[in-house]
Amino acid sequence: MLQRISHRPTQVRTLFLSDIHLGTKGCQAGRLLDFLRHYEADTVYLVGDVVDGWQLKSGWYWPQLHNDVVQKLLRQARKGARLRYIPGNHDEFLRDYYGTHFGGIEVLEDATHVSADGRRYLVIHGDLFDVVIRHARWLALLGNSAYDLAIWLNTYFNVIRRALGLTYWSLSQWAKLKVKNAVNFIGEYEKALAAEARRRGVDGVICGHIHHAVIRNDSGLCYINCGDWVESCTAVVEHFDGRFEIVRWADRESPANGAQLVIAAASTEPQQPTDWRSAVGDLMADLTPLPLRSPRDQTHASPAAE
């Protein structure tokens, strides 16, 4: 208890999270929950694929840890943090709610973030610049199934590594980056997002979608990808001087990451509902829609440490 009281979360100006994929067995919700206990921000951007609607349509999976992540984020909003949710392709059902404001969470198509040093960044999930998603959705769904298999193998691979006293290592991410076509795809994706940022006249772009965390500065334009919470467990933070940093949480051991706890959490799943959308909506049933805040309102209270 004394250790909990003495620990205060690291305060940052802005936090960017993408590709959490709540509702899938590959989501590392325990690590994310641990991360959220260590970092608090005035503004939190949820940069798409937070809830995996694709997976929830085919089979319900929602352990207590996933619910805890949602409640943690909602609690931050209630304490004064500004939460801005930009849906991706996996949570595209929320794209019907652009412009709404629920319980302190704004749902937006994209956003322009102004950093502490005055630079302007386009914040967007990025799936609209993925040619496979746009023109061959069936191929994207097929690839998603193959990806789920790779994540399943990755989970058991790391159980063995932990038993041997080794740190977390993403087998699926390593394989992806070793495939030439995947590397070329990442390069083209980054170029497409950078071109869109130039077209809009901003200084950089902050995105997700491809599960590859990186910060690049090319030709005077900054490209930032938040990574994911399935493979790499990464987030992007903006410090109060306007500096951006990738925080990698995969190497950090958390009590919520053990295999026993994952099994225990799965055993507490609620009964499968008939409609996954209504079940997710139950998490926010007590929230009342509020008017959107003005984009010019930059005054946010910092959440208290829990």
Major sheet characteristics: 7 strands, mixed
Average pLDDT reading: 76
CATH class: Alpha Beta
Radius of gyration: 19 Å
Question: Which residues sit in consecutive blocks of at least 5 with pLDDT less than 50?
Answer: 1-6, 132-143, 254-279, 282-306
Numbering strands along the chain, what is their spatial order in the largest sheet? 4-5-3-2-1-11-12
Tell me what the CATH architecture is.
Answer: 4-Layer Sandwich
Q: Count the helices. How many?
A: 10
CATH third-tier fold name: Purple Acid Phosphatase, chain A, domain 2
Bin the helical content: 25-40%
Tell me the series of helices and strands, N- to C-terminal: HEHEHHEEEEEHHHHEEEEEHH
- Number of separate domains: 1
CATH superfamily: Metallo-dependent phosphatases
Structural class, judged by helices and strands?
alpha/beta
What separation lies between the terminal Cα atoms?
12 Å
Q: Based on CA inertia axes, which overall geometry fits?
A: globular
Overall number of strands: 12
Strand content: 15-25%
